[in-house]
Amino acid sequence: MQKFFPQKTKKISLILLLVLGVVYFSWTYAQKAPTGLQVSPVRFDWDLNSGDERTGSINLKNYDDVKRQVTINVEDFYVTDETTKAEFFVPTAGHPLIAYDVINWIDVPKTIELAPQEGRDISFHVKVPQNTPTGGYYGAIFFNTKISNDANDDKSRLEINQRIGALLVMAVKGSEPIQRSGEIKNRTNRVQNAKQ
Amino acid sequence: MKEFFRTKTKITKSAIVASLLVVAVFGVMQAMESKSATTDQVNLSVDVASTIDVTCPDPSAFGTLTPGTPVTTTATCTTTTNNSTGYILEVRRDDADTTLDLSTNAATNITDKTAWDSTANTGDGNAATWTGTGLGFRVMQTGTDSGYNATWWGSDDTLTNAKFAGLPSAYDTILDVSSSGETAAAVGFRLDVPAAQTAGTYTGTATFQVTANP
Question: A7 and A60 in one domain?
């Protein structure tokens, strides 16, 4: 057996195996490594009183190896009874939900630039106006960027921008009491084993 | 004198042995004490923040288009979230009138297919199988990991079954993923123009929007 596999061949095989292992694990890691822009957290649930002020923080992370210009804007949203989907909007003067507009409550930077692989906490400040009626007020902070670099190849093309939203759900207590309501869509019975 | 030293050495040895014994006993007690300390319960808690990570690169260029011979390209958005209810992917065109404009004259457009409306036909959407010319898009079954809606986009990707719509001017849902994890969404674009279309390079932008399912 020894003559079929001389010591030198064994060594070479071992080195080759190690190299292949390193290449495989590097490739696997590269496949799993995150890319793009990450927003965290994606939702805030705050209980506030009329006239309150509060500061929050959203972590924004650029996972790519190029710098990203990120523009930030705020919109209102509502959730319909029929679906659980958030509908985003910027209300005009006659909008039926203008009374629930929170865009002017939220102060956040308009643009930021993230260096390659940079993560940064973006602070935002919420000021609930005095005498705001009790109710649910919903806003979203959007982070807009473009992932691909501009191409200058004189070809017909469609370019893609992307934006990620963080939801801000505010239950505001004014002079009226807060009334919470909900509907149970389904129920599962859970048996809990407890030591007596 | 010798005897004195021998006795003294014996005493010193005994003292060393006794000291070592005391140190050993003390050490064992210390070890027992520290072991009992390690069995004390320590409560650790941590809140993992919810995250969404999105990357939507540009699709490749349409290339040279010959009227009557459609061209296609695909953009793949990859989203990773730990939000247990998943996420919503929406899209809109960024130009007010049409998606693609002639680079040298924005007033010269390529017509969009009928704008996507997810609420049309009582929620079945208004996408339709491909006919004629224009720019249309659809979520592709192949390349979309989760949330593919066959009612909206067709039973499969074959041209006879695939449904296309135009990019809407306001954000509208194209994919609803109801669980956490990493998912890819492949969005295909199909373009054809009439013979009278002005020759030149046409460009435009669309925006993909990702938000957590509330």
Answer: no
